[in-house]
Amino acid sequence: xxxxxxxxxxxxxxxxxxxxxxxxxxxxxxxxxxxxxxxxxxxxxxxxxxxxxxxxxxxxxxxxxxxxxxxxxxxxxxxxxxxxxxxxxxxxxxxxxxxxxxxxxxxxxxxxxxxxxxxxxxxxxxxxxxxxxxxxxxxxxxxxxxxxxxxxxxxxxxxxxxxxxxxxxxxxxxxxxxxxxxxxxxxxxxxxxxxxxxxxxxxxxxxxxxxxxxxxxxxxxxxxxxxxxxxxxxxxxxxxxxxxxxxxxxxxxxxxxxxxxxxxxxxxxxxxxxxxxxxxxxxxxxxxxxxxxxxxxxxxx
Length: 301
What we know:
Layout: H1 2-22, H2 24-31, H3 41-47, E1 57-60, H4 74-83, E2 87-90, E3 92-94, E4 100-102, H5 123-126, H6 146-153, E5 159-161, H7 168-176, E6 183-186, H8 190-199, E7 205-208, H9 212-219, E8 228-233, H10 241-249, E9 254-257, H11 268-280, E10 285-288
Parallel strand pairs: 1-2, 1-10, 2-5, 5-6, 6-7, 7-8, 8-9, 9-10
Antiparallel strand pairs: 3-4
Helix pairs in contact: 1-2, 2-4
């Protein structure tokens, strides 16, 4: 009995020490995350295959964000996963010494307590600055490298890499290393999509297919439909329903992005009401700056 009490006391003391050292919030996050595990390219393909009755998937734009948690940070992604499952669009850029770091803008002015272009700093120099959240509050978090983010998330979630001036060859090489099966790439053109498809046999591409013209371009491209996830615009447009039906028939998921629209609404109740309207239009994926605000919403189609 005495041994049992002593062990219980030690466990309690250890927990208290963790709380004191790292904070209650960080400790809670470590206990349970809503994981999206992908261990192979086939599993990645299955995740992005359309299923008629599947719930709407929420994607965190720029890694998601909320008060105290800045965009394109490991901490924001982890906080989101403590609330709900999600995958994340992130923005790699090259530093002066060719290190891939996460930063949406060409400068660090908006998102850090520093000023200047990312490309004018070395990685070591960037570590002098700390990130700000969307409200402009300075946080203790620093600019992560792409590798740091990928290492953190390789058994937790999926990343959709946007391209902020990164040479296509660098992304192609990263995929060929096959260290991270949980990566997809956003592309800006059919030319870029073909570049990756012709060089990499295990890449899923997020491409723009908003109308029949874009649909036919990809239909005739030679890229298999099971390598594609379709970005269809800011909302599911009833005028383009035929396009969505064709994509679904191929197993392709349709993603909308509400960052430029619904995310801009200031009033929280009005914003969440607007999110519900988008859910009712039955997209397969909603990309949002604020994934945490979807955690209490009904996502079933």
